[in-house]
Specification:
Blueprint lengths: L10 H5 L3 H12 L9 E3 L3 E2 L4 E2 L3 E5 L3 E8 L6 H16 L15 E8 L8 E5 L23 E6 L6 H6 L1 H18 L4 H14 L4 H46 L4 H8 L3 H8 L4
Parallel strand pairs: 5-6, 6-8
Antiparallel strand pairs: 1-4, 2-3, 4-5, 7-8
Helix pairs in contact: 5-6, 6-7, 7-8, 8-9
Length: 285
């Protein structure tokens, strides 16, 4: 397995940037066996200007099925919208431009959208996300609304944390190994170790327990750098989200206090502690 120096790869996209590994992964998820002689072509999107990956992994099987796979440590309800943008770009890559304007129907690979969740929050083993859930209400704009959606995109989200979807992990050695590595990182982080300590200990644990052993021995420093960048970015996003949530809580509390609400009621609707609410209330006294 080689590391691609031309892209800012995630560890996930590096591990699964291989037709045989993708064959194993898709076979495990679908509970089938993709024959070895059936071609798998990787067509992951990249930005030609910054040489960065846009999506994690996309590939076709036998030129009949195009599959987009994303790994996420937090699940956004906007994943169907993002994947809609990705699949449009991928069809641009794999469908001949001139044939789009011919009279005869141009057959295209059927799309499939898979998200593998490996975060630290409770999440079901499987969940569907639908693009149509984001559509605005158009009541009053049509005489009658059809139950059939004019556009739909379904994302299948699978929880790949240890102890979840064991049948899938059992059939995909690479996915199971990746899951073990990530679970150890979360275990160490939850024990209040620093990010650097957690990553180093997780890598050492995996090498000692024959999990991605050869790969980590050869590319341990690069893997550390990849994971460090990924988790630092996630930490920064979490801080921004927390600050935005706190600011929203303060605004709600200030408005409620200005309207004469009791401190206890403000605590109930915002979740802020009473001391913070008392400090906010001083500006309204």
């Amino acid at each position: 397995m080689k590391l691609n120096k031309n892209h800012k790869d995630s560890l996930f996209s590096t591990l699964f940037n291989n037709p045989d590994v993708l064959r194993e992964l898709y076979s495990a998820i679908e509970g089938i066996t993709i024959p070895q002689d059936m071609p798998i072509d990787i067509n992951t999107l990249t930005d030609v200007f910054i040489k960065d990956k846009i999506n994690d992994v996309s590939f076709t099987i036998d030129n009949r099925l195009v599959i987009l796979v994303e790994h996420q440590s937090t699940i956004s309800e906007n994943l169907p919208l993002r994947l809609l943008e990705y699949i449009g770009r991928i069809y641009e890559k794999i469908v001949n431009y001139e044939r789009r304007f011919q009279k005869k129907l141009e057959k295209i690979p059927k799309p499939e959208f898979i998200v593998l969740y490996n975060g630290n929050e409770t999440f079901p083993e499987h969940k569907e996300l639908r693009l149509s859930d984001a559509f605005m209400d158009i009541k009053g704009l049509k005489q009658s609304e059809s139950e059939k959606q004019p556009l739909e995109l379904i994302v299948n989200v699978y929880n790949i944390n240890q102890g979840k979807n064991t049948q899938i992990l059992k059939k995909s050695t690479t996915l199971d190994s990746y899951s073990i590595l990530i679970s150890k990182i979360w275990e160490y982080r939850n024990s209040k170790l620093t990010l650097e300590e957690s990553l180093k200990l997780a890598i050492i644990y995996c090498i000692d327990n024959n999990v991605l052993k050869d790969f980590l021995r050869k590319h341990g420093s690069e893997v550390f750098s990849m994971l460090y960048g990924e988790y630092r970015l996630e930490d920064e996003i979490a801080v921004v989200r927390r600050e935005a949530r706190e600011e929203s809580q303060y605004i709600i509390a200030q408005n409620a206090l200005a309207e004469g609400s009791t401190l206890e009621f403000v605590q109930k609707i915002t979740g802020l502690d009473l001391e913070t609410i008392r400090e906010l209330n001083k500006s309204h006294v």
